[in-house]
Design a protein that fits this description.
single chain; mainly alpha
């Protein structure tokens, strides 16, 4: 059982450092955290909305499609950031590994919190876009933290598992990048789950991102109440997954110093 309370100051400071390090030395600094989601939104909207004429339904507009697409990308980018960074978390911090008293399990937690901070900034950008185009969002928008909370154990589990295995298998980084690209198109981000051929829907629904993306999109854009029971089951399953990954991390932890 993890005890966060004695380490909460360390977690906060490391999260701040991790967040700031991405923009260290850049001219625009933290402004990039706003520019990047806007740039991606513009690229995907141009490609799928204007060039391919994609719509989220028969009567949907390009503006609607852009915001629906953006909401799905927020969840995917959150997961992708944790996935691609996790394999090098331990390897990139050899000084921490060799300090017996340092709680290494904090590193994936810090990475997940930093990624969540970027996701919250992207949500702010999304909200501003929605207000400019459509006015005030639905009240169900207020449920988005619950969706993110149910998803958070998945981020932790991925971080603990890949950061531990990545010490022994250095190819994990390349594999994680391939998985990330594959999941981008196997997750209902550019399309709805209902548009997927019936034979492939089972594959799409097995994807752990599908349920979260659909729930996030429902509360953010469509004004639908979240699936409370489904989110509870998802959170429990995600927490079990995270606990198992932490067990693997702790089992491999004693050999980290020899491998780094």
């Amino acid at each position: 059982m993890l005890n966060f309370i004695p380490h909460h100051h360390l977690i906060i400071e490391l999260t701040k450092r991790d967040f700031a390090s991405r923009y260290s030395g850049s001219f625009a600094g933290i402004i990039w955290s706003f520019i990047q989601p806007l740039f991606l939104l513009a690229v995907y909207t141009t490609a799928f909305g204007f060039i391919l004429k994609a719509r989220w339904g028969a009567t949907g507009s390009t503006s609607e499609y852009a915001l629906i697409l953006f909401s799905g990308l927020i969840i995917f980018n959150l997961f992708s950031e944790c996935l691609t960074k996790s394999s090098s978390l331990v390897l990139a911090n050899p000084n921490f590994v060799k300090k017996v008293v340092f709680p290494l399990w904090i590193l994936p937690l810090v990475s997940a919190l930093s990624a969540m901070t970027h996701a919250l900034i992207a949500i702010l950008v999304w909200l501003l876009g929605y207000i400019l185009l459509f006015g005030l969002p639905h009240l169900t928008f207020l449920w988005f933290p619950v969706v993110l909370l149910s998803f958070f154990p998945v981020l932790l589990g991925v971080g603990w598992l890949l950061s531990a295995v990545g010490v022994y298998v250095r190819d994990i980084a390349q594999a994680a990048a391939m998985i990330s690209h594959t999941l981008l198109f196997l997750t209902p981000i550019f399309y709805s789950t209902a548009m997927v051929p019936e034979g492939l829907q089972r594959v799409i629904r097995i994807n752990p991102l599908t349920f979260v993306v659909d729930q996030f999109r429902d509360v953010m854009f469509f004004g639908n109440a979240p699936d409370y029971g489904g989110l509870l089951v998802y959170f429990v399953c995600a927490s079990v997954f995270a606990a198992l990954c932490l067990y693997v991390f702790n089992r491999l932890r004693p050999s980290f110093a020899d491998m780094v």
